[in-house]
Amino acid sequence: MMVSIVLVSFTLLAGSFMLLSYRYIIGETRDTVKRNAGHVSSFTSSYYRYYLTLDIQDDFYSTYVATIAMISNSHVIVADPEGHILYAAAPDDGRDYDYENAVLPDGIVAQVSAGGQFSGMSNLGGIYPERRYISALPVSNQIGPLVRIQGMVLVAADASNLSEMWASTATIFFFSAVVVFLISVIASTLTSAHQTRPLNEIAEAARKFGQGEFDVRVAGYEDRCDEVGALAEAFNAMANSLEKVESQRAEFIANVSHELKTPMTTIAGFAEGILDGTIPQEREDESLQIIVSETRRLSRLVRRMLDLSRLNALAESTVTAQETFDLTELMSRVLISLETKICDRNLDVDVQMPEEKLMVWGDPDAVTQVCYNLLDNAAKFAASGTAIVIHIAKKDGKAVTSIRNLGATIPPEEIPLLFERFHKADYSRSMDREGVGLGLYIVKTLLGSLKENITVTSEDGVTQFQFTLTLA
Description:
Number of strands: 12
CATH architecture of the largest domain: 2-Layer Sandwich
Distance between the termini: 61 Å
CATH topology of the largest domain: Beta-Lactamase
Number of domains: 3
Largest sheet: 5 strands, antiparallel
CATH superfamily of the largest domain: PAS domain
CATH class of the largest domain: Alpha Beta
């Protein structure tokens, strides 16, 4: 396509250039020849009026005409009204022309007599062996109201010089066009290869990705500051994201399988022990309590999976419907629901929030889930005997809620991953046997559906989660 465009462009440019240059050269020659013919015609008319005759032997007249012929490098012919050549002057070009008894063609004579001029290519009926550019004007003398044609003047320019000049110009243009065309073909070929090679590599990497090779990357284009470099960077970012999701999915399946296998094995073992009498009757109540505990654990896992499915559907829907509610009352209810867990962990609670109602916009159920998950995490990972600090304040039209606990410091590289689904930090896996890595992902998704933000910091063992809600 590029080569075709260049070829068509050069063809149109060459045609236009040749036509314009030829017209320009011919136009310049025509104007020059006509101007010189006008000088000789005017001088001859004045000579007629002054001397009442034309003496071609007069050195004054012949010198003037010869000078015009020499300066213009053209032949100058003076003829009578019938076209008989009276006098001719030519530059010294080494060739002789027979003007004796020569007569101008009738067509030229008639056109000069009737129209007052002639311009065109002609060999003057064989006087010249080649065609020349001719400009002819009458020699007239006005007597009263009458204009009398006393002769005519022709100036003949060698057209071969024009053709040679035009041919030379066209040749230079042609070779220049060929060189530029070859350069453009080479440049377009290299450019196309430079552009298509990485695209082919990206396409091949995409095919491998579709076959499950998630470790494939497009390398070697990191320093390219163009669209291909941006595409390669975006592809690698997508590949990293998909590989991470696949890794998280595999890890999640492994975690869920383990979480399901352990309680189900426990339940089956104790149930069989009760049925076949392996477990003494006095220990049946204890065994049943273990079965109930493991059953509730399974229930929690299933509930989290249902929450995840609901949140995925929520993320694809429109913005959640909102209403006004009292944030302080909602937080108090969540604290009461977690009172047993907080007490079991020997934790204190430091609540710093307004005594009056703090009305905000949002989905009460979603915000309740957010507060529950954050407080549950704070209680779960806080060091025994420390305090959980809850701070709610107004700032720039927002209600800013902070939940802070003292425990293990979250490594900086882990912080960006906290809100990803299925993610569980290594340090928390041994402490949180019940978790599946969905709590903070649910928090992030719920706040995102409300167009609100959440941030986390962890320094010197103090971890703080902070989220916003719009004041009503």
